[in-house]
Amino acid sequence: MHPLLSKNLRMNKERRKRLKEFTKKLNLKIKDFEIFERALIHSSFVNESNEKIRDNENLEFLGDAVLNLVICDFLYNKYQDLTEGDLTKIKSHVVSSEVLATFAKRIHLGDYIMLGKGEELSNGREKTSILADTYEALLAAIYLDTGFDSVRNFLVKKFRGKIEKLKNSPHKIDFKSRFQEFALESTSKLPEYRILDETGPNHDKKFKVGLYMLNEMVSVGSGKTKKEAQQNAARIALDNLNKKKSTNNGSITNNV
After folding, report:
1. Among 18, 15, 13, which residue's Cα sits nearest to residue 4?
2. Residue of 55, 60, 64, 119 marked active site
3. Which of 55, 86, 133, 136 is catalytic?
4. What residue segments make up the domains of the chain, in order of their start?
5. Active site residue 136
6. Residue 56 and residue 42: Cα distance in Å, rounded?
7. Tens digits of residue pLDDT in 176-229
8. How much is the pTM?
9. Is 205 in contact with 224 (CB distance < 8 Å)?
10. Percent with pLDDT over 90 in the chain
11. How far apart are CA 137 and CA 22, in angstroms?
């Protein structure tokens, strides 16, 4: 049994002290520490434990929904001058695993995650997917323990600066690089972009591009340039990933 986890999730003094210090740093007033305990338990820890304990995957599912609602609500009310396309680009980037993992590192979330030995040995505390998923589970814990306004305030304070930068230059969001990172991590192969159609005169062309992973088309994007079409194809693929993640309770397969 993990030295910081007592029987049936009744936290020992050392573990509770660490969690109190952690939540205090986050300016959170906690009533139910056990929900925060479960938010930090990775499935690999449960799989290697003889105790009847639950991992954080259900909380991750809820946290993903809370995150999307808070960000969409904030963007809609704060930036009504932006187009739907720009709002979608900003939201897609803000809720991405890479951004969530960055914020997770800022609060040293990895130090508190309970991992199995295999993940521990493979540097799981630094993995983007584990950090992002645990961050979502943490958001669910905040929501369940202290309510929607609390989790909204928590997120807006941390994400406002990031959103403001993106608001001023949404066109600079590089969806191709983000999707490439996903493809390499999940398949060890680079994605491929193929021109499917090219229409219009030379001065006003429109391109349709297909995005392929392991020779299978996963999305289609259009644009006035090949680069724009590729970026849109990558954005759509990432959006589909987020939707599939929510539907599958946080489980992402190699197929988009």
Report:
1. 15
2. 64
3. 136
4. 7-172, 175-247
5. yes
6. 6
7. 888 888 888 888 899 999 999 999 888 778 999 999 999 999 999 998 889 889
8. 0.69
9. yes
10. 44
11. 15
Q: Considering the domain 175-247 in this protein, what is its CATH number?
A: 3.30.160.20
CA-CA distance, 151 to 70, in Å (whole number)?
8
Give per-residue pLDDT as tens, 84-119: 878 888 888 888 888 899 999 999 999 999 999 989
**How far, rounded to the nearest angstrom, does the alpha carbon of residue 113 sit from its chain's CA centroid?**
16
The three state secondary structure string of the chain is CCCCCCHHHCCCHHHHHHHHHHHHHCCCCCCCHHHHHHHCECHHHHHCCCCCCCCCHHHHHHHHHHHHHHHHHHHHHHCCCCCHHHHHHHHHHHCCHHHHHHHHHHCCHHHHCECCHHHHHCCHHHCHHHHHHHHHHHHHHHHHHHCHHHHHHHHHHHHHHHHHHHHHCHHHCCHHHHHHHHHHHHHCCCCEEEEEEEECCHHHCEEEEEEEECCEEEEEEEECCHHHHHHHHHHHHHHHHHHHHHHCCCCCCCCC
Respond yes or no: is residue 34 known to be catalytic: no
Q: State in words which class domain 7-172 has.
A: mainly alpha
